[in-house]
Amino acid sequence: MQYTRSVPHPAAYSRFQLQWSVTQLTISRSLRDAAKSMRMQNSCSKSSTGEGWCASIYANLCSLPLAMRRVRDARIQQLGSDDCCFEIWTPFQWKKVLWTDESIFEVSYGNIGRKVIREKDEANDPFCYKRVVLKASSVRVWGCLAANGFGNLHFCNGTIKAPDYIRVLEVNLRPSLQRLFGRKRYLFQQDNARSHTAKITKTWLRTKRVPVLEWPAASPDLSPIENIWRILTRNMAQRRPRNIKQLQDYLRQEWEKISTDILSRLVSFMPKRLAVVIRRKGDVTP
């Protein structure tokens, strides 16, 4: 008998790792397609030597990994610019930030690491494979937090577009600010998702006089709330919710269970995170 372990579910990885792997996969496919097209073009040419083909394909391949380089350059350019003062911010200044983000949680965590028992000669037997893969039920969550505590946790249906995002802020932003900051000054942090950078969203934030923190593009590794999503993902994998209602209940319980000491440490670590990104020239932090 032989034991085989199934491939981990994508929810077992962090969202930034998935985004980075998709980017690398896209670039590798682009490299492959470029090499194929260049090979076809040069096969039709009457050149007797391969020097021209080698030079052209090398130049084309070197110009393709710009998607990853542009992300790094944008991050380091914004963090190192004169207008950006993140590098000199102290932990006390970072404690004035309200961190917000969305994440997706799925119900079927019981399928992670499922073991299958089969004979050695049944490695390629079609009866040992699952023929129909059903899409797991999921829920999209919006949450906010600060160094001194958690704000509201809001459950959304489907994709969050700009009008939906504005409704989420109308319901949850003011109560969270009153609970965490009172009348003190604050900065509102959000990533550069389309619903966040839409014109109607910017107009709404400007009308409500919400001070928005300019955030570098493709930088989920800098936000402390990503660590909280990772903690919740791990806790959901242990509790294994069976339906949407149970998943929402578990998420609320685990959201309120996380101690403020963890939040304070994560926010206090922001200067070191930025120093690592600048030292790595915009590359993803380990």
UniProtKB/TrEMBL annotation:
A GO MF term: nucleic acid binding
Cited InterPro entries: RNaseH_sf (IPR036397), Tc1-like_DDE_dom (IPR038717), Transposase_5 (IPR052338)
Highest taxon listed in the record's lineage: Eukaryota
Pfam families named among the record's database cross-references: DDE_3
Location of the Tc1-like transposase DDE domain: 97-248
Protein name: Transposable element Tcb1 transposase
Origin organism lineage: Eukaryota, Metazoa, Ecdysozoa, Arthropoda, Chelicerata
Gene that encodes the chain: TCB1_678
